[in-house]
Please model this.
Amino acid sequence: MKYLVTNADDFGFTRDVNEGIVMAHRDGILTATTLMANGDAFDHAVQLASQTPTLDIGCHLVLIGGQSLLDPGRCLPSSIFDLTTQVYAGKLRIYEELAAQVRKIMATGIVPTHLDTHKHTHLLPPVFNTVRRVALDFNIPWVRRPIDFPAPVKAELGQRITGSLIRHFEPKMDFTGLRHTDHFWGFAVTGRLDSAALIDIIPHIPDGVTELMTHPGLLTDQLRAAPTRLKESRMVELAALTSQSVKKAIATTGIALVNYHQLNQEFPQ
Model:
């Protein structure tokens, strides 16, 4: 049996991203999303979540970009290089920052089912160890394992380099006490996921549970002004996630669209 969790990162980033995520769920194949506690449109995302109870909500933990929740007014590291420097120099209170983000989300009444990190920062072993501790402390069972399964998709140079780093860090990930999907896909096509790419990959989805990472959204002046390279591509991903051809391809292959709440019920520990 093949199960597919289709997750949208960056819920709470901007209002137009939020609206695109909800549209991808209501009209398409999106089953889950992860919420940024320090996002500029956090309150708007929480409002939309309350109106969309079938959309599974997790935490998109942020250590790069935006403001700290632990120390309001202080900016978080601006790049993976800056983050790595601060982490290994002991200048960042990682647990306290991430715990503050989870608490803010849970204070709204949301019970998060899964965790991932903005920019895949939990590939850094000290960050992963902290994310694991946060997940256990707050009883959040699922943590993303961001290792693309082999697929006939060409990655750009930067993604190939990062992919090699991912494979280097994978053995250091200790998921003891946690759950993760059997497979993951989406890293190699971040910013390039359209309907054709999605239709091409669907027949290659392996048996078991796969997470598909996506970044859909609408595009208004708010997103155009936001500090992200993913702008027009979010509209392309939204079109892919709501495509009738994509829906037909999934139905034809017998893939079951699920979220993490449903997986907990289907496969209790």
Notes: The chain has a mean pLDDT of 91. The longest strand covers residues 2-11. The longest helix spans residues 94-106. Residues 2-266 form a domain with the TIM Barrel fold (CATH 3.20.20.370).
